Amino acid sequence: MVAYEIFQLVVFPGALFVICLAFLYEWVDRKLFARVQGRYGPLYTGPAGILQPVADFLKLLSKEDIVPRACDANLFFAVPVMYAALPLTALFIMPIAAPEALVSFEGDLIFILFSFGLMTLLIFLAGWSSMSRFSAIGSVRSALQMLSYEIPLGLVLVCPAIAARSLSVSGIVQWQAANATWGAALQPIGLAVVMVCMLAELELVPFDIPEAETEIVAGWRTEFTGRRLALFRMGRDLEIVLVSALVVSLYLGGAQQLWLVPAAAMFVIKTAAVVAVFSFARALFARFRIDQMIAGMWKYLLPIAVAQVVLVQMGLGA
Amino acid sequence: MGYASTVKVPFGPQHPALKEPEHFLFEVDGDTVVGVTPRIGYVHRGIEKALELSTYGHGIYLAERICGICTIAHTCCYAQAVEELMGIDVPPRANYIRTIMSELERLHSHSLWVGLVAHEAGFDTLFMYAWRDREVILNLFQELTGGRVLHAINTLGGVRRDISPEMADKVRRALEHFEGRTKEYLRIVRTEPTFLRRTRDVGVLKPADAARLNAVGPTLRASGIKGDVRRDDPYVAYDEMPFNVITSDSCDVFGRTEVRTEEMMESIGIIRHALEHLPEGVFRVRAPRNVPAGECVSRVEAPRGEDMHYARSNGTAKPDRYKVRAPTLANIPALCKMLVGIHVADIPIILAGIDPCFSCMDRMVFVRSGGSTGRAR
Amino acid sequence: MSIVGEALRQLRRKPCTVRYPAEKAPVPPRFRGMPAWDMSKCILCVLCQNACPPGAIRLIGKGPEAEIEYLMDRCIFCEECAEVCPKRAIVMSDRFELAGFDRSKMVFRFRKEKEKQPEPPKHSAPTANG
Ligand code: SF4
Ligand code: SF4
């Protein structure tokens, strides 16, 4: 029994499975983004380049490790590890193989929200600790950006919880299963707001402001190389899994069995679809400027989010 | 705000937004640029001296290498200057072919620029599309001249390759496709809201400033001033071509985008007209080896603006002095004007807005006597 | 969002990238690739040497023993040599994959064959068709 639990935590649906999923989704994202632009994307490593993210990861691990002399060494070393570990931890809360997650407690939704905030804080520290102009600008932009999308995101994420009368992600999934409905059907506005906020959380176009290549090199990531960069990239991939898992769990029914398709397979299909939407969306826009982005979030997204909360409180979509 | 709190932010010479090495020192107050000092001359290649050391016939290949994009414009300008000194008349067919080539070059340069400005605005998909469709023009060049980038088509006394009727048909067909694509870009840049937000009222250059600071090319025309060498001082066969000088009153990066995209439509019209009315006859006359003494200035409207060459001959087979003024240099003062009072995030897109070609403009080194540092000018 | 229609259409279309080493874009006729000498036609008149802007052609030796040395690393593929040759002994081939790490491998020598025995140049001399 203990052995099985360890297997669950480490292999399936725990760490190993999630990491494989992270690499797979990076491939999905890159491939789709490339196809939209008329390119092939990864092509040579494995069938259709599916192993390219793994190859990139291994390549980065073996690269020279450069530490800027001026950096704050402790932070500089610690942040990449934490950045990769945090979304991995948070993913244990997500129901992946069954409507019940490995770890679930009343209020874990709050923990997820908190971990999003923490991710941004880590980004800020990463940029700050590297003591370079581009990194500093990138991290300040990242913090500013968080200030603008965090509030609509928090408001809207509470709506499914209100409807399901549970502050646990697993609880919300089970509520959807019990009522044979999807959160998206009840709260389409909420889903739209969440998708926009998540584009910002993941720093994808049009909100890739903190790492705008043509403006500030690689933003907060500029000074990171080798294994630290590899960890950041893996952290980013895990974050994509986390975000799409959250969207799927709260709005798209989560990991539920459908006829003979097991819950885990449904989860993978649904999250892959969410990732595809993200990568398609990021091909369609130009980048906003930071002031335009903040203004837009406060002026348009926040009222919409509030409206969603009001609707749910009035009993619509609950 | 009682304290002076400006930060100096260096930009370049190595920076992902600048594809060529050039340095700008920005003085930034918060998020606003309050001052800018350009420092040019990183890619001085000694091309003028090299021109003085090579014969007129060989020099055209050096002139071709002043710029990787405006190869036709520079060779046209060179050939015109030398032909004038030599006193030879270029056959009309050659002039028409030069016109066609110049306009094809404008098409490929402008679509390259549309992609570039989209990339600076973070719009990578438009960047990929624009560069994909630019391939059509490059392939045309490859078939017409034998080279995709360095065409080696202009020569003293005419052009080196003729356009056969079959090739003309190919060009027409390619233009058919390209025209559709250009219209699509015009629609995208006019309607895509995120792109509009990044370009409207960004990098404003008032008409008075544009005139005073001698901006050239689309940068000038986007400030509402009708300045175009093709119309003001027609060369090759432009006096026989029907076309409009496109201007825009918006004076910003959006205006520059619009002007360039609409200019592409005009170019397509010019090429069609020239192919239709291609005169019969020879396309090349013999050029003498030695050139009588004299001097000459020749002007050409390169895709980026007015390109100017000056040549002085002394009766030998090599020029005595050769001077090139590439369009980007003329736009630098206007650029510095645009760069003051903007958001830091807008720097790349404004820089890209003048379609800079820094290695074309870096010419000579001027060492200030008395000063401690040599400054490239 | 104004690009969404085209983005969707693009998904169904084949990407426009050429998967380079595996497939190659066709080279049009009269492409200016690496020039190739047909020494049976050459009369060693030195015109090509004089016409070459970067000095990529050198005539080495005298008389019928002379060789033409072609320095591919200097060549700018301008076709002046082929244009000027009175015997049309130079043809611009369609070879364009000329990059390498060793400049000494970019020097080619062509000599008139004395009798029948052709002496193949050391480094895969280009033929007329590449
Ligand atoms: S110009 Fe022609 S004939 Fe004369 S040396 Fe060169 S290759 Fe030989
Ligand atoms: S192609 Fe031009 S550069 Fe090359 S050998 Fe011939 S003349 Fe010289």
Poorly predicted sequence stretches spanning 5 or more consecutive residues of chain A? none
Share of residues in helices of chain A: 55-70%
Oligomeric state of shown chains: heterotrimer
Number of strands of chain A: 0
What is the fold named in CATH at topology level of the domain at 39-110 in chain C? Alpha-Beta Plaits
Distance between the termini of chain A: 39 Å
SSE order of chain C, one letter for each helix or strand: HEHEEHEE
**Level of helix content of chain C?**
10-25%
Gyration radius of chain C, in Å: 20 Å
CA-based shape of chain A: globular
**So how many helices of chain C?**
3
Descriptive keywords:
heterotrimer, A: 318 residues, mainly alpha, 68% helix, C: 130 residues, alpha+beta, Alpha-Beta Plaits, two-stranded antiparallel sheet, 3 helices, binds iron/sulfur cluster
Q: How does this model look, in words?
A:
- The complex is a heterotrimer of chains A (318), B (377) and C (130).
- With 318 residues, chain A is mainly alpha-helical.
- Chain A has one domain (67-317).
- Chain A contains 13 helices and no strands.
- The longest helix of chain A has 32 residues, at 133-164.
- In chain A, 52% of the residues are buried.
- In chain B, 47% of the residues lie in helices and 14% in strands.
- With 377 residues, chain B is α+β, with helices and mostly antiparallel strands.
- Chain B has a domain at 71-317: Cytochrome-c3 Hydrogenase, chain B (Orthogonal Bundle).
- Chain B starts with 5 loop residues before the first strand and ends with a strand.
- Mean pLDDT of chain B is 84; it is low at 365-377.
- Helix content of chain C is 15%, strand content 15%.
- Chain C is elongated and about 70 Å long.
- Classes of the chains: A mainly alpha (318), B alpha+beta (377), C alpha+beta (130).
- Chains in contact: A-B, A-C, B-C.
- Chain A binds chain B through residues 36-39, 133, 137, 205-206, 208-209, 212-215, 217, 283-292, and chain B through 9, 15-17, 31, 118-126, 128-129, 132, 192, 194-195, 197-198, 343-348.
- The complex binds iron/sulfur cluster (SF4) (2 copies).
- One iron/sulfur cluster binds next to helix 3 of chain C.
